[in-house]
Amino acid sequence: MAHTPDTSSGAESSSTAVNGLKGDKRKHKSRDLSKKRSRDHGDGKNAEPSGPDAAHAMRERRSSISKPARDFRDKPEPAPKKKKRKISTADTLKEEAAAEEAAESSTRSPSPVIDFDGLSRPSVGTRARLEEDEAQRELRLTKMKGAVRTLLECIGEDPDREGLLATPERYAKAMLYFTKGYQENVRDIVNGAIFQEGHNEMVIVKDIEVFSMCEHHLVPFTGKMHIGYIPANAVIGISKLPRIAEMFARRLQIQERLTKEVANAVMEVLQPQGVAVVMESSHLCMVMRGVQKTSSTTITSCVLGCFERKEKTRNEFLSLIGVNR
Ligand SMILES: [Zn+2]
């Protein structure tokens, strides 16, 4: 899939366990860099290397596929250090515990999924759009229509010809639909559908169709998302998982963040033993322009909790969704 030579640019942009499982150690060092690096999957700068270096790199990558999974997260956790606490007071102990707790939670999720005002990771204009009245909605639409008309003029079209007359309005409405996720929040979606079942086996919803918009080019990227979790007794209504995916997909996104946001949302709302999300998708900005790699797939994954700690659990998930081939 993503590990054919054709797809190297896609595979490299995934900051994920998928790479790790294929055993390319060098990738892990760039993991953090790739997260920070602003994503540019279009301009050919990140296209496959050519020449003898490329051939060498390709050989290396191929041979690594057959090797067992190596992932820095698989290393056994170091034995807890004996802290010199004989001289610590109760206060410093408390502080240390709080700091540890903070560090732990900060790696789990960078921001709370349900904010104090009930919006889930809102953007600047989210509240305004959510609470606008009829007049404000009209104003927004008029503004958008004007912008689309300008676009039509700028590409050299005649916005007054018959076929294009209603296009600005249609496009504005479509755009609002593509980004309707800004007006939704996780609390309303879940709506109490969490059940104490005493079930502690892996639950997977796979092949969830996802349609999102690349925030760099404002063109779609589409694909499939697979969400798995291991409950800590509580299970979530199965249909809620695709709806959470939909909510975050219907915003301006990059695939890496979309994957992470869905995983974090499930983690926060359900508090399971672990969550794993894998997304494979095709980016129109890459397929239709730029490097024009029409068959490439970009795979991203985010694993939290027991999926992050246990290779066996992660592999079970990957083989069930059919990625770990
Ligand atoms: Zn793009």
UniProtKB/TrEMBL annotation:
Annotated Polar residues bias: 1-18
Assigned keywords, A-Z: Folate biosynthesis, Hydrolase
Pfam families assigned: GTP_cyclohydroI
Segments of skewed composition (Basic and acidic residues): 31-46, 56-80
InterPro entries: GTP-CH-I_C/QueF, GTP-CH-I_N, GTP_CycHdrlase_I, GTP_CycHdrlase_I_CS, GTP_CycHdrlase_I_dom
Ranges where the GTP cyclohydrolase I domain occurs: 145-321
Region Disordered: start-end pairs: 1-129
The keyword Hydrolase is annotated on this UniProt entry: yes
Keyword Hydrolase (UniProt): yes
Domain of life assignment: Eukaryota
Gene3D superfamilies cross-referenced by the UniProt entry: 1.10.286.10, 3.30.1130.10
Enzyme class: hydrolase
SUPFAM superfamilies from the UniProt entry: Tetrahydrobiopterin biosynthesis enzymes-like
Documented EC number(s): 3.5.4.16
Pathway: Cofactor biosynthesis; 7,8-dihydroneopterin triphosphate biosynthesis; 7,8-dihydroneopterin triphosphate from GTP: step 1/1
Family (UniProt): Belongs to the GTP cyclohydrolase I family.
Designated name of the protein: GTP cyclohydrolase 1
